[in-house]
Amino acid sequence: MRKQNMNRDWIATARTLSEALPYLQRFTGAVVVVKFGGNAMGDDEAMAEFARDMVLMRQVGVNPVVVHGGGPMINDMLKKLGIESEWVRGKRVTDKATVEVVEMVLAGLVNKRIVQAINDQGGRAVGISGKDDDLMVCEADDPELGFVGKPVEMNVQVIRDLYTAGIIPVIAPVGTGTNDNETFNVNGDTAAGAIAGALKADRLLLLTDVPGVKNKEGEVLTELTSQQVRDLIEDGTIAGGMIPKTETALDAIEKGVRGVVILDGRAPNATLLELYTEHGAGSLIRR
Ligand SMILES: Nc1ncnc2c1ncn2[C@@H]1O[C@H](COP(=O)(O)OP(=O)(O)O)[C@@H](O)[C@H]1O
Ligand SMILES: CC(=O)N[C@@H](CCC(=O)OP(=O)(O)O)C(=O)O
């Protein structure tokens, strides 16, 4: 009896693999930028699962590029140091002391945790920040926000060099400035959008803590056009942290990214479900 059940499971697994063939073919050679938000990160087991998905994508010929956040981890460290943060329109007001903590946490602790998790799964990950090779050159976003950066020049060749060599780049959203010795704190979604746009990526996956973009009734919209997104922002259905996220999506599409998906990073194998099954996951935003 047990043996029969097990056989049924194996048959289902084999069928899933077989049904993935057209998707595996479609995404071979594709560049997929994955924004891994701090809220989507979870415990070590969830991190290992995310890492395994990235290694699997790489194994089947996709070029994954990971851009991460880490807002909750920055909050923890600021709290330990007794530094308070204020938020304006979803962005952290960042003074000199705060930007030092942001760089330490994002380019250090969070970046290396992801790098190590991918390497532990048999992948080859290399962690960099937007400062490396002048990847992300910024200007101040708004004087009110202090050292919050708006990317003004992207030099993405280093990313191409890494993925061409079989390496998964893992990028912390910390930027350099147009003047010497400047450091900018960049919102993770903004950084991922700028990187995906500059690479003209096939997909930008924004992993967050909700199943997707919801309508007024609270139902997840599986496909949206840019115009529908604008209408939902206009009528207030898209609010809070979903505003910068969807604006990033529109901006990336404008720059030539083929499709942006907002999906729940806490769901098991979210990225694989999105790329390799007919069901997809989350909300796909296209031109
Ligand atoms: N229409 C909407 N559909 C889905 N989520 C929405 C919507 N409007 C506002 N939100 C909020 O946006 C949040 C996601 O943004 P945010 O918290 O900044 O994510 P992250 O930390 O992953 O970058 C959701 O948790 C939800 O509370
Ligand atoms: C300017 C700004 O707000 N930067 C963010 C950078 C990290 C981030 O974006 O993290 P999540 O993706 O986990 O939210 C911050 O300081 O928290």
From TrEMBL:
SUPFAM superfamilies: Carbamate kinase-like. It is found in: Cytoplasm. Substrate binds at G70, G71, R92, N185. The record marks K35, K245 as: Transition state stabilizer. Transmembrane segments: none annotated. Keywords: Amino-acid biosynthesis, Arginine biosynthesis, ATP-binding, Cytoplasm, Kinase, Nucleotide-binding, Transferase. It is an enzyme of class 2 (transferase). Coiled coil: none annotated. Pathway: Amino-acid biosynthesis; L-arginine biosynthesis; N(2)-acetyl-L-ornithine from L-glutamate: step 2/4. The keyword Nucleotide-binding applies. The keyword Hydrolase does not apply. Its EC number is 2.7.2.8. It comes from the Bacteria. Its main location: cytoplasm. Residues 31-263 form the Aspartate/glutamate/uridylate kinase domain. It catalyses: N-acetyl-L-glutamate + ATP = N-acetyl-L-glutamyl 5-phosphate + ADP. Belongs to the acetylglutamate kinase family. ArgB subfamily. This is Acetylglutamate kinase. It comes from Thalassovita aquimarina.
